[in-house]
Amino acid sequence: MSNTNTTQERELGAAGEQLSTAPREESAGTVPAMGVIGWARWFWRQLTSMRVALILLFLLSLGAIPGSLIPQNSVDELKVQDFQKAHTTLTPVYEKLQLFDVYSSVWFSAIYILLFVSLIGCIVPRTFQFVGQLRSLPPAAPKRLTRLPAYTTWRTDADPEQVREAAAGILGRRRFRSHTVGDAVAAEKGYLRETGNLMFHIALIVMLVAFAAGQLFKSEGGKLIVEGDGFSNTLTQYDDFKSGSMYDTDSLAPFSFTLDDFVGTYEKSGPQRGTPRTFEARVTYAEGVDGKPKKSVIRVNEPLVVDGTKVYLISHGYAPVVSVKDGKGKEVYRTAVPLLPIDNNITSTGAIKVMDGYRDRNGEKTQLGFEAFFVPTFAGAGKGTMFSQFPGAEFPVLALNGYHGSLGVDSGLPQNVYQLDSSEMTEFKDTSGQKLKKRLLPGETMELPDGAGSITFESVEEWASFQVSEQPGTGWALGGSIAAIAGLAGSLFIQRRRVWVRAVRGTDGVTVVEMAGLGRSESAKLPEELADLAVELNSAAPTAPDAVNDPEMDSGAGPDPDPDVPSEEPAEGAEK
């Protein structure tokens, strides 16, 4: 705290104290007492200071930047793997700095915990101090009201008791807490400023706790579903699943749903051609094991909510329905195969794998694999590949080329279902010895050479990808955010101030009225408010006739008998 403020507190006494519950900052040159206790006390005061809290908040903000720019394992492991393959030099550095797991890293957790402790260490003592201020009455008036930043005086024929009674009534109507102390009425207003300040800090703690709870107890899984297929909320049904370290997988909410239909419509003309207009999944869901089926529609940012679990619609694509027959004409495979989009017009790629049931022309069991390339609206053949000109399935074409042999699925190693491992397979060749490949319209068939069978493009289904998430604490986080904004607004726009009205009888028998105000910080509103109070009180205790023309009794800032002492301002404590 500056020497000026210290001098002001000493000269104003109790009148200038406790306008804030902010802890006092120690001067930079303060040397802590030697010994463990002294150093511990010094460290605690530094940790709970405004300066350190701001530094921690700044570091937390900086720490969130790499978590937003660099792919995170907790969000998408495939993106992390792609990033690592593309940046082989940076990857070891990022791994050592835990930049692929920012929000669970040691350094981010340390900043988070220190900020939490800092806020707790500040709020607890300030709360007790503020409660004590609420239970106490405003302090008595200083001896020299002329030193306060806002001051006015006049003389009146009214009795001092009448003036003080009128002042107390006016201040009460203006929602000041007031009482009479000796020859003056002491009043105070603006307690909501400190209430807002404390509410802001408490709301920050609530948000931190909610964020921590959300990370520890959350669950999040993904599921791709083709039209007509369903999903049951059990661990084995997920394509991928992640959860917090304290989440119990046995607590998954029991529900199921079926994707009845996916509806996607797109702008067909103009500069917005291809822009989605309708993007919704129509589902039938049931709560519990024996729940009654209900209809619902899931849209982007409009999830299905079941027992606290939210089902979000994430993405959409096409699943060509294909059938495969062996050399004897027996159908051994028929299914809708989801393909992954690679552009905004949903040009898609994937793999068709026939693992069981197929026999070659010699009756030997083998496996088939087809690389698939699909366009929903064929726009013509480009150089070496097809491309789509519209995301809607208006002219679907499926391009295939096939292999036979071993798919490698029996090795026990995990495989990407959308990629074909042809390392142990042989390409089918056409009659000219070239790679067998063909573009198919719905209903068309590609014959495999040497009587190996055929594959038919039957029709097109659509699929939708869903994210099923359970994240406790989101309601608390939202409530904390709203409370933090409200508290911050209160602490910024509400001014804590005190007003004193002194009325004493002069030596000539005329009552001298003095009014002065003190705010926690300089504000143009304080003199204006004091002037309004003075005008209202003057109507109840009008200026004495013999003082109307006295130039020394004009309303305004009182004279300062000691020009060497700076004008009085309230003590400015360090505020968090």
Automatic annotation (TrEMBL):
One of its GO terms (cellular component) is membrane. It comes from the Bacteria. Residues 1-27, 536-576 are annotated as: Disordered. Keywords: Cytochrome c-type biogenesis, Membrane, Transmembrane, Transmembrane helix. Residues 561-576 have a biased composition (Acidic residues). InterPro entries: Cyt_c_bgen_Ccs1/CcsB/ResB, ResB-like_domain. Residues 50-530 form the ResB-like domain. The keyword Metal-binding does not apply. It is found in: Membrane. The chain crosses the membrane at residues 52-70, 106-125, 198-217, 475-494. It is a multi-pass membrane protein. It holds the Pfam family ResB. One of its GO terms (biological process) is cytochrome complex assembly. This is Cytochrome c biogenesis protein ResB.
